[in-house]
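Example 439, ligand copper (II) ion.
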Amino acid sequence: MASLRAAPTEFELAGRTARTWAYDGVVPGKVLRASVGDLVEVTVANDLPEATSIHWHGLSIVNGMDGVPALTQGDIEPGTEFTYRFVVPDGGTYWFHPHHGLQLDRGLLAPLIIDDPDDGVDADVDYVVMLDDWLDGVDTTPDDELLALQSMDMGNMGSMVMATSPLLGGDAGDVSYPYHLINGRPFEDPLTFAPEPRSGDRVRLRIINGAGDTAYRFAVGGHSMTVTHTDGFAVEPVEVDAILVGMGERYDVTLTVQSGVWPVVALAEGKDQRAAAVLRTRDAAATSTPDLTAALTELDGTWLRYADLRAAEAVVLDLPADGDIRPIPLRLTGGMMQYDWGINGVPYANHEPIEVRADEWVSLAFENVSGMWHPMHLHGHTPQIGRARGGPRKDTVNVLPSQTVEMVFQADNPGEWMIHCHNAYHLEAGMATVLSYVQ
Ligand SMILES: [Cu+2]
């Protein structure tokens, strides 16, 4: 039985102290590890000044443990505890965070690794790489930032960022962050992955984007990467130089590390900032350091597209005939100026649940009619992307402006499940609805 205590704490950022909220006083929270088939029990003590909950992002668990207040459980009120108990069905790289206001954009997030001895990855070292954008307790708080965004007009641009990226189809983000972190460490104070690998070791990186409003373009200097999993599920291995990781997405990659010290860089896409860390082999000279500010050819090399991803045979969904998959159109609507992000033109407060019957095959067809990309996340299921046989299994998918992307799955986990944008500010503004099982 594990325990977590959510509470206010202080967080050091390269010599600057931020007041924030975190699990057990560390940012990100310490890695929670279990094995496929385990019964996980976690007691959460809430010492925050407001209610909280925990969502186990990406796991298809029993609905009552999904951590969405008012939908799957009551609030965990300040001064109280709640014990989550669930069996983990699948191995892979996941994470957890509150589903309550903008708490995710504080320090309340942590990696969740489900070990699977049969996952086909033979690595000498295994590192978690948690990416995060940070503003809490530096000059502002996430709640103040949302107010600024909501009250923005042409005369008051607040701290709005004019971030654009061709990889994201235009507008890259709404919020400007003073820091971008890898495993809680800012660019000015980067970590070195430990224990250090030997030259020639096979290194596994479990990349998790825990940010509120930032996609990262991730690369390792001097190395290409073999993508083995996305969102916990195996794919046919594909070799790339860089990976674009939206909020909520995960990628597992492997690489054979060469002797030396290497920059590990996560470019804040469209924001002209970066997070960084150091990958150093044991035989590297103690005095050598990589230049983390240098241009990295890998960042501009071959980057992973969804079209490059195919589910590994063991996790390919056995789809019915196309006509037996019911399309459910979901328009992604709203905009920056009104800050009225929604689904089918309405905010979550006015949502009509998306009704499905148990065992029905459906396709959530996200059509992005807004001017900005959205990382759309479905709780409680691991759909495949697109209708072609062998589409990758993903619980979070980036939908660019003017694109339509389908999440196809069999409704096999009854309950009330959130469907929402994983931009924390878009979610809070109302870009969410509910998948609801009916008889
Ligand atoms: Cu969004």
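Summary: Residues 341, 374, 421, 423, 426, 431 surround copper (II) ion (CB under 6 Å).
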